[in-house]
Amino acid sequence: MKKYLKSSQVYLQIWTCLPSTLTKAIIEISENNFALLDVVKALSEFLTSEEDESRTKGVEILSLVLSRCPAEKLNRQSVRVLTTFYCGKLDDTETIIPALKGLHTLSSHPSCSPDDATSIVQAIFVHVRMRVLVHSVRFLVFSIIDNLMARNRDALKQMGKAFLSGYASLAEGEKDPRNLLVAFAITRVILIEFNITEHIESLFNITYCYFPITFRPPPNDPYGITTDDLRKALRGCLNASPSFGQLAIPVFLEKLAAGSPATKRDTLQTMSICFPVYGSALARASARKLWNSLKLEAGVSYTLIQTSPHPEQIFQPTDPLTEQEALKTTQALVETIYKHEEDAIESDDDVQGLARDVCEECIHILREPEKNQAKPAIKVLCAFMSTTPSVSRYTLSQAVPHLVKLFFNPDEISNRSPILILLADLVNAARDSMPSEVTDEILVPMMPYKDEVLGLVSVGSKTATSRIPAIGLLRGLVSTKKLLSDQELGYIVHSANDIFMDEGVANDDFSDSAILEVLSIISQTAPQHVEEQTLPILFSALPEQAPPRDAPLERIKFWRILLALKTLCIHQRLFEVLVIRLTTKVDLICIPPTKHNVMEDTEPDAAYAHSLLKTITDTLTTKVDAGHPDVAKYIDRLVPGLYNLFFYSALHQDRAIATEHRLVRVVADIITLITQCLPAQRQGTFVAGVFDVFSTGTVHEFAEGLQKFPADTKLRLFDPCATTAQKNLLAPLSAGVVTAHREVLPPPPSLDTFLNDLLRWSVLQTDHSLQRESAWHLISSVLNKHADTANVFLEDKINNFWPKFIANSETPTERRRWALQAWVWICKALLVQKHTSLSRFTDKVFELFTDDEISWDAAKTLGDLASSDQILTKRNHAVMKILHTQKFVNGILPRIIIGAQDSNKPPHEQTAYLVALTSLIKAISRTTYAHEMTTLMPLLIRGLELPDFEIRADVIDTLLATAEGDASDQNLISEHAPALVTYMLKNSVVKEMPSIRVRTAALQYLGILPKIVRYDVLHPSKSSVLRELAKVLDDPKRSVRKEAVDTRSVASH
User: Fold this and answer.
1) DSSP alpha helices (H): ranges in 239-260?
2) Which among 327, 402, 326 has a CA at the least distance from the CA of 369?
3) How many Å apart are CA 467 and CA 473, to the nearest integer?
4) How far is residue 715's CA from residue 694's CA, in Å, rounded to a whole number?
5) How far is CA 868 from CA 842, 865, 877, 885, 961, in A?
6) What is the number of H-type helices and E-type strands within the chain?
7) Cα distance between residue 143 and residue 179, in whole Å
8) What are the average pLDDT values for consecutive 10-residue runs of the chain, which has 1053 residues?
9) Quick one: which of 990, 996, 956, 989 has its CA closest to 973?
10) CA-CA distances (angstroms) from residue 785 to 789, 830, 848, 878?
11) pTM, 2 dp
12) Is-contact 65 98, C-beta < 8 A?
C-alpha cells in the first residue's frame, strides 16, 4: 500500500504540470490499489497548509479526484466526512471555489443523506455571498441546490423557514441567463411543493422582478440559451402557485398599460397561462379591471354620446398580433371564471358577471355594424365561443337574434352587407368551437338559429351588394357538421345553382369563387346533390360545337363552366361523371358523327377539345396530390379510350383534330398522372403493352374503344414513312413508361437496342419538338432505372454517338443541337443518382466550348443539367440520391470559374465559360454558390455585356438575390457599386436594351442599391443616375415607366 500511496503522491504533486497523471491516479483508485482516504492523507500537507496557494491547490485536486472517482468508491461515512470538510472550507475565501466543486459532486452522490443535505445548505447560506462570485461559481451554487432538491427534497422541506428565506436571499439579484434557468426550476418546485405561506412576498419579489424577459442572446453564445427558454422557465414559476395571484394582477395591468407591443404580448400570454392557476375567485374579483385593460388591446371601443362634434373614443385599437393575444387572454379569463360553474348554469339568466357585461357592451357596439368598432366587438364575441358551453350558448342567444333583427330593419338596409360579414364571423367561430367528432345535433351551437340565418342568406344573396357576404355566411353554415339536414343541403345546392347560372346576375370572379367553394364543401359530404342538380346544369351549358374565332364571349362562358367542373369534381363519384361526359364531348369534337359537322377551320375545335382535356388533367392533378385511391382505376376506364381516339385519328383520318400537338401533349399528361398511381404489377402489364406496340405495331387490344380499327392496322411510328401525326403518338406511349417502377421494364439487352434505335430516331427522323422530347424523356427515364447494367450503352454513346452526331462539324448545326439536348437527358439520368460515369459525359460538353458553331448551346446545357424537371422525380419512381445537384455543382463550378478567368483562352471560349456560369447559377439555389460570390461578382458583371438578353436578365436576377443576402454580400456589392450602376443604367434605356424584362430588372436593381450601399459610395453617380432615369420615364412600356418612377424616387433621396 505504501508503494501505491507514494505513487499517488507523485501523481498528485506533479498534476499541475501533467494533467494525464490524474487519470492514472483515478485508475489506481478504481482498481482498488489504494483508497480515496489515501489520497486525502497524501494531500494533508496541502489541505492544512497556511499558504493560500498550496491550500487552494490541495482542495482543488481533491475535488477533481472526487469528481472523477467511481461512485461506488464512496460510502456514506466517506460522504459525511468529506461534506463536513468541504463545508468547513466555505468560510475560507481562498478555498470556497474548489470546495463548491467538491460539494457539487457530493450533492449528487447516492450516499448523500438528508443530514448531509441540511449541512450543505446551511453552510452555503451562512458562508456564500453570491454578489462577490463570478457567474460560473454562482452556477455551481445553484446546481448544488438543484441536486439536493432532486435527491433530498424532504430534508429541505423540514428546514422550513430557514431554507426559504436563505434561498430567497441567495437567488436575489441573479442576472446570468444560465443561472436563471436553474434558479427558475428550483423556484417552481418550491412554489408547488413547499409551504410558502409566510414567504409569498419574498418569493414573488425574486421571481416577478424578471418579468417580462428582455434578454437577447449575444452572438455565438456558447450555452445556446434563447429568450424563449428564459421566458418559458419564468412562466413556469409565475403560474406555479395560486398564492401569487393577488400580487401578480397589478403587475400584469401595469405592464399592459405602459409596455411596448412585445411586452404587451408577453404579458398577455403569461396571463393566459396564469389565470387557471390563480383560480376563479380571483379572476371573478378582478374581472372588470382586467377587461378594461384587455379591451384596449383587443381594439374594442364605443363612442360616448356628447354634444361635441368630435366625440371622444375611450378605447383605442392596437396592432393585430397584440389584438390576437388579447382575445386569447380574454378567453382564458372567461373560461377560468365560468368553468367550475358550468353544472350550475341551467339557463341564459344564470350567466352573470363578466360574460354578460362584455356581451352587452359588444351588442351595444354592434348597433352600428358599419362602424370600425363592430369588427373588434364581433371578434370578442367569437372568442367567447371557445370558452365554456354556457358562455357560448349565451353569446349566441344575444348576438344572433340582434344581428338578424338588425338585418331585417328597414332603416338598416344599406348596412346588410356588414351585418352578414359580422354574422359569418360568428358562425365560423361557433363551427370552430365544436369538437372534431359530433355525434349529437344538440352539440351544434348554431342549431337553434339556423332557420333564421338561412333566411338572411336567402334574402342577402338576391342583392348584388350583399351577395358575396351572404355566400360567405352560407359557407360557414354548410361547413358546420350536423347543422344542416340533407334536404336543406339540397335546397342550398339548388339556390347556388340559380345564382351561378343566372345570366341576369353580374357574377364576377369573387362571387363565382365563393359559390363554387360552397358547392365544393357540400360535394365532399353530400356529393349526390351536386351530381343530381349541379352537374347536369353545367354539362348542358357546354356547347356541342366549339365557338368560332369571332365569339370571345362564348369562349369565356365555357371556360367559366369548365372552371366550375374542375373545382367541384374532386370527389370520386363526381370525377367519374366528369370523365364520362367530357371524354364523350372530346370524341364527338375530334371525330364528328357526320361530315357536315366538320369545319374548315379546325383551330376552334382543337382549342375546345384541349380545354376539355385540360380540365380532366387539372382535376386529376388535384386528386393525385391529395392521394385519392380511385385514380388508379382509370387505367382501364379512361386510358384505353384516349389511346383509341388518338391512334385512330393519326392512322385513319386526314386533318384530324386529335392529331394537333397540344391535344397529344395534354393526353400524355393525363396518362402520366394515372400511371404514377398504379401498383408495380399493374404497371408491368401496361408497360408490356406499350413495348408490344413499339415492336409489333398492333393496337387493337391496347387501344380498344369506340373506334374500330381495320384488321390490318399497324402503328409503325419509327418507320421512315410514318406521318407526323403517327410520330407524335410516341408522347402518350412514352408517358406511361417514364412513370414505371424499375422492375417492370424489359431486361437490359433488349432495352439497349431499343434505346439506341430511339436515340438515332430522335436525331434523324423527328420533325417536331414533341417527338424529340418524348423520346429523350423515355431514354432518360429508362437509363436512370437501369444505369447499373447500361455500361455497353454508355460506352457506345461516348465512342460512337458523340463523335458522329455532336462533335462532327460536318453534321448540320440543327441536328447537332438536337443531339446535344439528347446528351443532356442522358447526363440527367446519371446525375440524379450520382453515377460514376457522369464526369466523362460532362467533360465532353466542355470540349465543345472551342467550337464557335455550338459553343453557346453547349455552355447552356450545363444549366439545363442542374435544373429540375418533371421526368426524373420520385413520383415517377426515378433512382435519386440526396444532394446530387450540390455534388454536381461543386464539381464543375470551380472549373467554369477558372475557364472564364483564363486570359490565355480565346475570347469566344472565355465567353462560352461565362455563358455556362450564368446558365448554371440561374438553375441552382443561391446557397449552393454563395461561398463563391467574391469570385463570381466580376464575372457576373461581365455577363451584363453578353448579347443574349435572357442571359443578362438572369444575371440581374442573380444580383437581386445577392442584394437580399447578409452583410458580407452587401459589402461585396458596395465594392463593385460604380460598375454595377453603369451597367444597370445602360440596360435600362430602350435604345440600348430592347428587352422589357432586362429593363425592368435593371431598374429594380438600381432601386435596391441605395438601400444596401453607403451614401458616400453612390453619391458620385447620383446626378448621372437621375439624368438617365429621366430618359427612362419616356419608355414606351407602362410597367417600365412605373419602375423608373419608383427607382428615381429612391435615388433622389
Assistant:
1) 245-258
2) 402
3) 10
4) 8
5) 17, 8, 15, 9, 19
6) 55, 0
7) 9
8) 43 45 60 61 68 79 80 83 88 87 90 92 92 91 94 92 92 91 94 92 91 82 86 93 93 88 92 94 93 83 39 52 92 92 74 90 92 92 92 93 94 93 95 80 84 93 90 94 92 92 68 91 94 95 90 91 96 96 94 66 90 97 95 95 94 83 96 95 94 91 90 90 93 95 80 89 94 96 91 92 94 95 96 94 94 93 93 94 92 94 90 94 88 91 91 92 80 90 92 93 92 88 90 91 91 80
9) 956
10) 9, 10, 28, 6
11) 0.83
12) no
**Which three three-digit cell numbers place residue 494?**
339548388
C-alpha 113/C-alpha 836 separation (Å) is 66
Q: Which amino acid is at 473?
A: L
Question: What number of residues does the chain have?
Answer: 1053
Contact predicate 869/859, CB 8 Å: no
Distance CA 323, CA 382 (A): 13
Residues forming a β-bridge with 303: 313
> Phi and psi at residue 447, in whole multiples of 5°?
-55, -45
Nearest to residue 517, comparing CAs of 568, 565, 558? 568
What type of residue sits at position 502?
A: D
| Strand, coil or helix: 275 | helix
- Amino acid type, 458: S
| Residue 740 grid cell | 414505371
Between CA 239 and CA 759 the distance in angstroms is: 72
DSSP classification of residue 283: H
3-state secondary structure 560-605: HHHHHHHHHCCCHHHHHHHHHHHHHHHHHHHCCCCHHHCCCCCHHH
Query: What are the CA-CA distances from residue 490 to residues 243, 432, 477, 484 (Å)?
Result: 57, 24, 13, 10
> What per-residue confidence (pLDDT) applies to 42?
64
Residue with cell 437509363: 783
CB atoms inside a 10 Å sphere around CB 414: 9
Strand-pair partners of 313:
303
Extract the C-alpha cell encoding 816.
447537332
